[in-house]
Amino acid sequence: QPVFQWLTGHHITPRVAAAVVVLGIVLVIIAPLAFFVTKAIQQGIAIGHGLAEGGVSVRSLLGHVSGWAPIETLIGSPDAVEAQARRWMQSAGTSATATIVGLAAHLPTLVLQLALASLAGFFLLVDGHRLLGWMTDKIPIEADVRGQVVQSFQETAISVIWATIAAAAAQSAVMLLSYLTLGVPAAFLAAGATFLFA
To answer: CA quadruple 147, 150, 152, 158: dihedral positive or negative?
Structure first.
């Protein structure tokens, strides 16, 4: 909205300004997000196949962990733990691959929803003030109280969005440090997925 208002303040027609803003959102946010999702699906399928085929070295993981005295007491025989871990990883890999392929099947629906959201954003930028005026007239209270309700709703919505983004960024940063410390492959991709899911 501020960018749209700035453009219209510089003698650009509302429709052109709205089109520029929506196109900018698509190029700055949605296009990189689509690239990230594509890469995440590719790496997820590769990791799922690796787990399903037993490509992860459980023996090396046990070698790192078995040096700790409490862990050595808990896990018992490394061979039994390795056999059980391989079965779990193969099952998890098969399930993960199926889930990721299922998510990839929903990409056309997601693209359609993003296109509709962009179209709605265009019209809300052009005629949003008229919609807001129409909606506030329907609230059965005095005009000054209506203005306070609208202002309060706007401030609350903006605060919730910023708080959600800040919390997701903090969780993603903590997980990125954890992934890098533990040597998780594709740590940045996993941290990006953490941000999106958060």
So the answer is: negative
Task: Give the tokens for residue 103.
Answer: 């998510």
Alpha helix positions (H), the chain: 2-9, 14-25, 31-52, 58-65, 69-75, 78-105, 107-138, 143-182, 187-197
Q: How far is CA 39 from the centre of its chain?
A: 13
What single DSSP character describes residue 98?
Answer: H
Angle between helices 187-197 and 31-52 (to 10 degrees): 120
Which long-range contacts (C-beta less than 8 Å, at least 24 apart) are formed by 65-72? none
What pTM was computed for the model? 0.54
Residues of the chain below pLDDT 70:
40-41, 44-45, 47-86, 89-90, 92-93, 96-97, 99-100, 103-104
- Tens digits of per-residue pLDDT, 92-114? 667 766 766 776 677 788 788 88
Residues 72, 27: contact at Cβ < 8 Å?
no
Give the other-Cβ count within 10 Å of 110's Cβ: 13
